[in-house]
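Just wondering, does anyone understand what follows?

——
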Amino acid sequence: MADVVAYIGLDWADERHSVHLQTTDGRIEHLELEQKPAVLHEWVAQLQQRFGGGTIAVALEQRRGAVIHALLMYDWFVLYPINPKALARYREAFRTSGAKDDPRDSALLLDLVVRHRDQLRAWVPDTVESRKLQALCEQRRKLVNQRVALTNRITSLLKQYFPHALDWVGDLASVQACDFLVQWPTLAAVQAVRPSRVRQFYSDHNCRKRAVVDARLAAMASAQPLTTDAAVVEPLSLAVQTYATQLRTLITAIQTFDTRIAEVFAQHSDHDIFGSFPGAGDVCAPRLAAAFGTDRTRWDSAAELQSHSGIAPVTERSGKSMWVHHRLACPKFVKQTFHEFADQSIRFSRWARVYYDQQRARGNDHHAALRALAYKWIRILFRCWKERRPYDEKTYIEALRRRGSPLAKDFA
């Protein structure tokens, strides 16, 4: 490992986070950070500039998965996740009252990594290709979120003055829809052109089902405006044109990301493993590979990843009361990855569909059932990843039958 140029003890809290930093000359600094991703990344950029990208050892509580996930994006950090129980015992050695204080905890974490780094297990960054795949997948997802926001905004505006367009443009998150709304943002505009021109527009956008096009042209000819108030139509139609132009750019950008993700994932060492899972497809498979990484020593058990991702539920007790809820402090993108993969898997995996239906029959809502399914999938994914072998649906179903699983009795 390269020489360490600085040590950091980081105690992550719900609102403000305590940081103790020690340089190689023994000088210690303390600061607090707001609970905002932008603040975290700005602080990281300052560290990189200050220490020239040299290796920085960071000690933080292991349960703070979201922070670990964010810092792993930078290859000059060497992370030392400290078990919360270990930190509590270390705290008690100096403070028998058991009182907890964030600034003091960050100082204790700093002391641990400075004095006992040789006895701690480092959580080193993944390979360049793996981190590149992770960043590509995360940035793509942010673009998708923007696309959803824009389509929702356009839908809301059209409903106020031109609801007919929602039936004529096709999928609103498509190039065809964007081009239609830019050319004809109002009912008057589309009714003013010849039907042959509209028909040619559909043909140019690969919409060639004659019955569909004829029905739309007939509806255009007979449609009545929802409103003719210029104070409504003109501002809203201009806004729709603006958002449609932005949406078209986003759609093209997402396609570019899809192409690049496919190229990077094709060269990934675990491509065949994650590509073998039912429903993973071109979107979820690269995200699963990015969530696991390539370092087989990173996760000792599936339970660690279940907790880190936020899929494992949290049980809280107070007196005689006990309640269970899903985790909030977790890397949201990783949690979303497993959640969405579980949703896709019920369309392609027999046992996943049966398990999902059983969860719904017990009264769980859609998302609770998907989290329960994702919890099971992580164990399977972990086993295949650890043993470097692709998933086989038939093998798993046979294993369920041999064990007498309740799922097996519902298979044909």
About this structure: Residues 65 and 308 are 5 Å apart (CA to CA). The longest helix spans residues 230-266. The longest strand covers residues 4-11. The chain has three domains: 4-125, 130-264, 271-410.
